[in-house]
Amino acid sequence: MSVFEAIADPVRRRILLTLVDGPTRVVDLCSHLSDAQPISRPAVSRHLRVLAEAGLVVAEDRGRERHYRLESQPLDEVRRFITDLTAEAAPGNRRPPIPESALDALDTEIRRTVRQRRRAPAPHTSTTHHEETA
């Protein structure tokens, strides 16, 4: 699952905000999240599983308890996306929506085609019209 899909859910975003303070048990997450809206332990566990698949949380076993901690490195993709969006919106910044390097191959192909057309003999065009008759 992508990071964007994982953080799309408001409950998962609240879980991440809670984990900013440090590793937390599922029961504590459930209690904290229930302040805003009741949520069951199995539901919190399912959300944590999605976050773990996206690489946003890591489970650590401490004796009989499992503590979940935030792994912020995958959020770099979101930061880059937001930076690109805000750079696009900045006045006077008219970057193309794709990286310029992606257009290098197109530029090469256009130059090659232009060279080929210059070298090719001009097609012969006739000024008289001939009609075939049967």
What report would you give on this structure?
- This protein has 134 residues and is mainly alpha-helical.
- The chain is built from six helices and three strands, in the order ααβααββαα.
- The protein has helices spanning 3-7, 10-19, 26-34, 41-53, 76-89, 104-119; strands at residues 24-25, 57-62, 65-70.
- A three-stranded antiparallel β-sheet has the order 1-3-2.
- A hairpin with a 2-residue loop joins β2 and β3.
- It is elongated, with a radius of gyration of 29 Å.
- The mean pLDDT is 82.
List keywords for this structure.
elongated; mainly alpha; 6 helices; 134 residues; three-stranded antiparallel β-sheet
